[in-house]
Request: fold
Amino acid sequence: MILLDTNILLRYAKATDPGYAVVDAAITHLHASGEALAIVPQNVYEFWAAATRPVAVNGLGLTVPETQTQVARLKRLCVFLPDRPTLFAEWESLVVAHDCKGKVAHDARLVAAMRTHGATKLLTVNVADFRRYPGLTVLHPASVVSPPTP
Reply:
């Protein structure tokens, strides 16, 4: 199972995004190879906030009904993993252990959600942001589509 980072979902929702083609190809490849793709509530919260934000402030500028349609599409595409009661304790442990400050605390929450579900793989365009977490396999869409040669 591979959790999709919110930055993947945002690119996948906007066909005119410069990263759309590689994200679409990676998702198509992963599905074809039998990988289960997953999202968690945190993804939906973050997606909603960015999707409904105006384009002028780095959002997608979608209406609420358009965003709702995109969220429904993502929930059909992916396994939706609900928050578990142990999520907060796992998140708190991660932010303290890895000295998380500012925006990276959001990333820690995604990792905490993954851990509560036993997921160890993440697809993201921000690979470096997740390297601090041991036991996590972090994949960039380009590496999925064109794996490095040995």
About this structure: The first helix runs from residue 6 to 13. DSSP finds seven helices and five strands in the chain.
